[in-house]
Amino acid sequence: MATYVLLPGFWLGAWAWRPVAADLRGRGHDVHALSLTGMGERAHLARPDTDVETHITDVLNLIRYEDLRDVVLVGHSYAGAVVVPSVADRMPDRIKRMVFIDSGPLPDGMSHAEFAPPEERRRNAELVRAEGDGRQLPPPPWRQLASEVPGLPDGTLERLVRLSVPQPWATATTPVRLTETWEKLPRLHVLCGFSVEQVRARIATVPAFRHMATESSAYRELPGWHWPMFDRPGELAAILHDAA
Description:
- InterPro entries: AB_hydrolase_1, Sec-Metab_Biosynth_Hydrolase.
- Keywords: Hydrolase.
- By secondary structure, this protein is α/β, with parallel strands linked by helices.
- The chain has eleven helices and eight strands.
- It has helices at about 20-25, 50-65, 80-90, 110-115, 120-130, 140-145, 155-165, 170-175, 195-205, 230, 235-244, and strands spanning about 5, 30-35, 70-75, 95-100, 135, 165-170, 185-190, 215-220.
- Strand 3, helix 3 and strand 4 form a beta-alpha-beta unit.
- Helix 2 (about 50-65) crosses helix 3 (about 80-90).
- The model has no long low-confidence stretch (mean pLDDT about 95).
């Protein structure tokens, strides 16, 4: 039996992991899917100052108070880019492996918003100003994004539209602060939007990808949507099971 902590990306809560978590529990694992502050059933706790440090503390406290050890720490998208390495950096003795779902760790001093191309960054900033009271990024147009995704289980799109909540914008703009401690831990990258070959090409030219080139990094390709917990949950759970 392994211990998993599952962290969702932007706009999502623990509910997004339900099929994956159920599969892993059916295999005998201990699974903790977490809604970060301001997300999911904790949406009412969002504040203008909810930032990356808030979310890092959420995970550190879960691990501490549940006394979790040898944790397979799984982060999708945003959570993988900044929360997973930060938690591992501060509590390396509790982490067995880091798993990045269509994501990778950003370098020290870089924010999640800075990873986006300039046009997308400006567009998101305007959405925050015009529709998010200057402090939240509204959920994306899920129906449009999912229009070309084959095989989404019944009810998935309806749940995305109904349960997604705005993302506290400070979580995107706060720079990550890291030492080198986390880099000693093994990691797995589950690639959905990029192939291994494409990632390796970017490692050579894009500084934000440099932490994906280490001897402790392994790669698994799971081609499909950026949100594999929705379109390929069984296959994702099998990869996570193997990662233990």
